[in-house]
Amino acid sequence: MGMAAAHEISLGDPYAQAVHNALEASVLVLNRLFLAVHIIPVKRAFSLLLRDQAEVVSFEDGQYATYNFDTWRQVSDYRARNFRQVDDDWIRTVTCEIQVPRVIRLLEYDRIPRQSIKFNRRNLFARDGNLCQYCGKKFSTSDLSLDHVVPRTQGGVSSWENIVCACVPCNVRKGGRTPKQANMALIRKPERPKRSPLLNQKLSNKKYESWHMFLSNAYWDVELG
User: Fold this and answer.
1) Beta 103-106 vs 26-30: how paired, if at all?
2) Domain ranges of the chain
3) Please, are residues 164 and 133 in contact by the beta-carbon 8 Å criterion?
4) What is the C-alpha to C-alpha distance for residues 66 and 59, in angstroms, rounded to an integer?
5) Fold of domain 121-174
6) Residue closest to 167 by CA, chosen among 197, 147, 151
C-alpha cells in the first residue's frame, strides 16, 4: 500500500503532514458480535483488512454498512471525489487514495477482554489530562513526571489513588514529602478510573464520534488498548 514510503516524505510538506496525522489515528475494533474489544493503530487495521480478517463497519443513512478491503477502496474513491469531510483521514497509495476507517469488525473473533484498566504510565497521563496535579498547568508527556502523593519512603504505594502527574518543578519542590508537609495542594483527588482514560480522551475528539454507537453502558469498563 506504500504506507512505509509515506513516512519518508518530509513532514514540512502539507500532504506529508496529513499522511502522518492519518497514520497516527486510531481504529475501534469490534468482535464478530459487534462488541468493542480494542483500539488499534491505522497500520494494524489495514493489515487485518488486507488479510481478510476484518471488514470496515460504517454507519450510513441510519443503518450499518460493512465493506471488505476492495469495496472500501471503491467507496473511498467515490467519497474522495464527492463527500470528503474535514475530520476524515486519508492514506494515498501508489494507485489510489483510501479513507482511514474509524471502525472495523473481526470476522472470526467473538471473545470479550477481561474488564480491567491497565495501571500504566500512558493511562495515568490520560486520566489526569496531562495536567500537573499541583500547579494545574498542562504539559507535553515528555515534560511530565509521576509523583507518589505519599512518598514511598513514608509507606506510599504505587496505585491509582497514590500516583499523580506532576511537572518537574512541582515534583522537585515537593521532594520526598506529602503535599501537606510541602504546603502544596492537589487540584483533585487521584482515583481509579471507572472507564478507560484513553477511550475518554478519544471520544472527546469529533473524528471518533462514530464510536459512541458501539459503546453501550454495559461495555464502558471493557479494557480497550
Assistant:
1) parallel
2) 3-114+197-219, 121-174
3) yes
4) 9
5) DNA Binding (I), subunit A (1.10.30)
6) 147
Can you tell me the distance from the alpha carbon of 55 to that of 61, in angstroms, rounded to the nearest whole number?
19
Extract the C-alpha cell encoding 103: 471502525
- CA 149/CA 187 separation, integer angstroms: 12
| Helix (H/G/I), strand (E/B), else coil: 204 | coil
Residues 6+ apart with CB under 8 A from 131: 137, 138, 139, 165, 187
pLDDT in tens, 5-48: 443 434 445 445 555 578 888 999 999 988 888 889 999 999 99
**Closest CA relative to residue 169, chosen from 138, 145, 194:** 145
Cβ atoms of 182 and 108 closer than 8 Å = no
Quick one: cell of 114? 477481561
Residue with cell 443513512: 61
The side-by-side arrangement of strands in the sheet containing 103-106 is: 36-41, 26-30, 103-106, 54-60, 63-67
Sign, CA torsion 114/120/125/127: positive
pLDDT by residue (tens digit) across 154-211? Answer: 999 999 999 999 999 999 999 999 999 999 999 999 999 877 787 777 877 888 888 8
